[in-house]
Amino acid sequence: MASILCRPAWLVCEGILYAALAGCGAGIDNSGGGGHAAGCVSSALVVCTKSGQVQGATDGNFRAFRGIPYAAPPVGNLRWRPPAAHESWTGVRDAVAPGNRCPQFDTNGAAVGNEDCLTLNVYAVNPPASSKQPVIVFIHGGGNVLGSAQDLPWGATPPLAGHDVIVVTVEYRLGLLGFLVNPLLTAESAQGSSGNYGLMDLIAALQWVRDNITEFGGDPARVMIDGHSAGSSDVEYLLASPAAAGLYSAAGMESGTFPGGLIGTSIDTAYRWYADVPATMGCDTAADVLACLRAVPADTLSLSVSNHTDTGWVNIEPVVLPEDPYLKLQRLGSPVPLIVGSNSDELSFSYVFGPALDAIAYAAKIHTQFDAVVPASGDTILSLYPATDFTNPNYALESVETDLYYTRGVYNFARDVSGAGRAPVYRYLFTHRYENPAPQDTFVTNARAFHGAETYFVTGSLQSLGTSVTYSPSSAELALSEAMMGYWSRLAATGDPNGSGAPQWTPYDESSGDILQLDDTIASMPRGYRIPQMKFLSTLPIRGF
């Protein structure tokens, strides 16, 4: 049987979505810390951090602190090194405007961003709460090659911060700047490690939260890490990383899992992914290859991603990921209570809005895709996804691809990580279709539960959805968003999403297959979701997420 590794489905989908919606090291002590400059006293908008004071701004009922550095700019000789501590500053640092995007390419293929980008944003209620609040740290998606905390729905102050939690969003290194692996980098590392710099950034951000969030009104002992798409897979890596242990108490994974057995067994396996980078950058014959590479403009490295589709891949190395993260979690379970799920129409932007298919064209596409992998498997797919079961053949094809690349991964992950004696895993399926778009934004309705649709409900930022005008959510959508914010904030606070009269969310168990369906009516799906389809798709050697 042939094997297809289909990473571009993830990256392409996120690119379409964005266009449409216009000191880390071995032996880290994560036991605690805190404190700030001697004699510094925090107020509502001027807050003391360990590096100095920051001045935020009010935004309605919220306080917003943007662009706070959590590590030194990874430039010059600090490029492709673990994040270093940021220098302290005197006086009060302005924290009103967001920091830079990390270098990447935009939807037009142009380089954007700045290498001085290791900043985070803190959102909290105004006035400050009377007691310490749990924290949700959100990790943006983008295939680990693009994306930013400035992107919707996180670019604006999220109403989620009004649900008795403090919200933190993070910028982290992407692409070649965040994940390059090279024997010369390994040789210069005291731990014999290279790659995974983007994950090291996230760990440094969590350390910053541990050390500073109390001054913003947060509880460093109750920190939930939550990510979407590639950010979701980053959460998976952090759950498995010994370097991140003790920095979080709960986790959420939205529309992204990374399968086991894909990243080899040692750092040596990863060298071939990037073996041509020195030559591509004109540095292979330089007297000092690393010095040459560190002098290459960040824009050049960002644009080279198109020639290196694996530049957002993590790798096995001794510091952050000593072993395959999926296989470790499969063996041990999640170290903390976990929400994991996906949307029912993740890839609608890729397949629903293309040329209209009839049943014959749909069948031909299925046979072309699947028979080349497993002979005659196309017949089985067509029997499991008959065109007559869907609005039209385009939606049928979209359902196949969504299940192949997303739903299957969540099904397998929830099955493999949950179990008796392990931390509870709460699985969801988001099926909501947007109900009240302006006439020029009807694509939102036709896209149904698209990739990223749930993030607007988790954040409470429904009004920021529209591409042409501000979206006007229905009363049912506002209620669904309130319910989802409640589930997420309660998990952050207590490790259990249930309470406040919300429909009961039962921990996932393979024998029952219970899933919480998130829609206008929130209800349990006690027999699971497309189990025959999931079981067959899981037999195919096609990589999903």
Overall description:
With about 550 residues, the protein is of the alpha/beta class. The protein has two domains: about 40-340, 3-Layer(aba) Sandwich (Rossmann fold); about 350-535, Alpha/Beta hydrolase fold, catalytic domain (Rossmann fold), CATH 3.40.50.1820. It is built from 18 helices and 16 strands. It has helices spanning about 10-20, 175-180, 185-190, 195-210, 230-240, 265-270, 275-280, 290-295, 300-305, 325-330, 350, 360-370, 375-385, 395-415, 445, 455-460, 475-495, 530-535, and strands spanning about 45-50, 55, 55-60, 60-70, 90-95, 105, 110, 120-125, 135-140, 165-170, 220-230, 250-255, 340-345, 425-430, 515-520, 525. An eleven-stranded mixed beta sheet has the order 3-4-8-10-9-11-12-13-14-15-16, sandwiched between helices. Strands 1-2-5 form a three-stranded mixed beta sheet, with no helix packed on it. The protein has a two-stranded antiparallel ribbon with strand order 6-7. Helix 5 crosses helix 10 and helix 12 (about 360-370) runs parallel beside helix 14. Residues about 1-30 have low confidence and may be disordered.
